[in-house]
Specification:
Elements: H1 22-25, E1 44-47, E2 56-59, H2 70-80, E3 84-87, H3 103-116, E4 122-127, H4 129-140, E5 145-151, H5 161-173, H6 182-193, H7 200-207, E6 210-213, E7 216-219, H8 223-233, E8 247-252, H9 263-269, E9 273-278, H10 285-288, H11 290-301
Parallel strand pairs: 2-3, 2-4, 4-5, 5-8, 8-9
Antiparallel strand pairs: 1-3, 6-7
Helix pairs in contact: 3-4, 5-8
Amino acid sequence: MLRWAVHRALRPCRLSSSRMPEALRNSSGGGREDAEPRPLPLSYKLLDGEASLPGIVLLHGLFGSKANFNSIAKALAQRTGRRVLTVDARNHGDSPHSPDMSYEAMAQDLQALLPQLDLAPCVLIGHSMGGKTAMVLSLQRPELVERLIVVDISPMPQSSLPRFSSYVAAMKAMDIPDELPRSSAWKLADEQLSLVVQNLTVRQFLLTNLVEINGHFRWRVNLDALAQNMAKLMCFPRLQESYSGPTLFLIGGDSALVQPSHHPEMRRLFPQAQIQTVPNAGHLVHADRPQDFMDTVQGFLT
């Protein structure tokens, strides 16, 4: 039976500062609070391409998975001839779970993975939460990023905390009996979730995290870690260094997440930043306008 414990209170966001010293970067962490997080072995899918060209790395958003970019990844691989990597962030998809959900930890996971796959430097594309992770990695380890594309997010605090927290609470409160036929389980889950999440598209997106294993239904996303770190995820680390590589902020024309007031900080951290709007696209730019998204990405690579 799918049942979750009482929703814990969210912790306040704590902003970190500046780049880690080299000594800490090369340490294993050792459990010390001031050491870098220990990287997790992320689940990924790598499409083959020309090894002499920088590969493309796609990072999904909150509640998402690497499957969100399946069709985009295949199309980009065909159109550009490059290797394309999609990755499950920690606590998402098929990647391991951890109580640490900081952007520094997520960036550390990529610092370990990219050289392992011979993908450094890469073209790093991140959507929403993945965009913040991409920005942190670019700022802390610019040598790993040949160019950066940030999709519908900025390095500024978000006001989505109550809404996302309500999603987590609703998912944790769901009650799906064991051994229920899959179609019936998904219908029941949709009905229960609809009491809090009225938007059908959002419900369908959240329900991609509901999986059946040996007759038992569970969430593959780590709801406890998200609940404990949600306030932190809505913020952005306070970093003083900048990333001087080519950078594109790709904004959904119908989305309100990135405001003109954010532009000065975007350009402070990313001096070469271009800011481009995709008309008739909401927050899920790549899903709402996939052709425009791919055309823009391909144009930015040339």
